[in-house]
């Protein structure tokens, strides 16, 4: 993708988000755009940064570390780890990322807490919830959310921010909204249970269901193809 095409697609994504927020009668700043840059070259991230994009999502640890090394000169860049995370790769995420969206078990949370350098701010954490009950998907069950949240709130090097989900594809807006509404309700329940926590994030919504996610309260939408084009096979 050329820089011109990237500029056009990023502008289009921003307009789409703005239109969705307006249609949902939400403030223009109520949701942020997370540019999902996995499998895309560092040069493309650099070009998006030059266009004002600051938050980027990666799913593969080694690939992300190589990009971070190449882009270390970029001020204000914020790295989100959004893919499934194996315990043996948690140290790199704890040391090199600002956010992790895919925490779904106590063991992983405790490792990230132990491995987060003390000179860095606490690692921002979203709990990944399996909203569609798919056996093939990562994520904690709704019933186990309160206990996992309580565990993380007691870990000083982690900062619990909210919930994340990747729902099963759905054909209609109403079908897309249903699991996302459950996620929003779960976040509200956690807020009531843990009023001292800064639970301000719903990481949901991708290229195919952005509008549904905004209607259901998303604060961080994850767009990859809509910004960077189709991923290479």
Automatic annotation (TrEMBL):
Q: Which UniProt keywords apply?
A: Pyridoxal phosphate
Q: Which PANTHER family match?
A: PROLINE SYNTHETASE CO-TRANSCRIBED BACTERIAL HOMOLOG PROTEIN (PTHR10146), PYRIDOXAL PHOSPHATE HOMEOSTASIS PROTEIN (PTHR10146:SF14)
Q: What does this protein do?
A: Pyridoxal 5'-phosphate (PLP)-binding protein, which is involved in PLP homeostasis.
Q: Name one GO molecular function term.
A: pyridoxal phosphate binding
Q: Which domain of life is it from?
A: Bacteria
**Alanine racemase N-terminal domain: which residues?**
26-231
Q: Name one Pfam family in it.
A: Ala_racemase_N
Can you say what this protein is called? Pyridoxal phosphate homeostasis protein
Q: Which organism is it from?
A: Candidatus Halomonas stercoripullorum
Give the family this protein belongs to, as stated in its UniProt record: Belongs to the pyridoxal phosphate-binding protein YggS/PROSC family.
**What cofactor does this protein call for?**
pyridoxal 5'-phosphate
NCBIfam families attached to this UniProt entry: YggS family pyridoxal phosphate-dependent enzyme
Q: Which residues carry this modification: N6-(pyridoxal phosphate)lysine?
A: 38
